Amino acid sequence: MTNKKQQSLFDRATLIGFKYAKQWLAVVLVFGISILGYAMLHSSSAASGGTIYLSPASGTYRSGDLVTVDIHETSGTVAINAVQTEVNYDSAKLQIVSVNEAVSFPTVAATDTSIPNIVRLARGTLVGTSVTGDQVVATLVFKVVASSGSISLGINNTFSLIAQASDNTNILATSTGSTFQIGHGQSKKK
Per residue in 87-136, pLDDT tens? Predict the structure, then answer.
């Protein structure tokens, strides 16, 4: 091969590598945050009472309606720098439409919706920054696909955590899900 052909092959290989670099970075980010989350979950008990909850907690919807659910964390006056959670839902009743980022955690974000009935999220602040109080972690949008019954969204505490900024201690103490009714009358869209 001539030098020109060798250079052309190198350029193609480089472009292919860059094409998949973003996907690999996302996989590495999800894996890394999951490892960190596992270590924090099993390293200590909750330092104080952080909560992950879904809002709204209830409502009535009809088949075809979109249901918008905010995932909140509240840590009071404790500064936190990461949140990880798993929201469970029934895919026979709801279809995930989108997961929208929140301004509280703008840069470090990983989402996995590949497992049926589960949305996994990991969010973090910039290095050296933290948040306190009640923050929206992300917004989930579902479409109602069932025609009647009730719909429950739950938080899996085994997978979930709120990381205290000073030492990455998991401060999650409680979580609260949502329950919606599917009816034929007036829908309640939030």
Answer: 999 999 999 999 998 888 877 889 999 999 999 999 999 888 999 999 99
Number of domains the chain contains: 1
Q: Rounded to whole angstroms, how far apart are CA atoms 6 and 39?
A: 46
Tokens, residue 75: 């840590």
Non-local CB neighbours of 173 within 8 Å, separated by 6+ positions? 46, 48, 49, 50, 51
CATH number of the domain that residue 74 is part of: 2.60.40.680
Burial class (CB in 10 A: 0-12, 13-18, 19+), 151: buried
Helix (H, G, I), strand (E, B) or coil at 33: helix
10 Å CB burial of residue 137 (0-12, 13-18, 19+) is buried
Is 90 within a domain?
Answer: yes
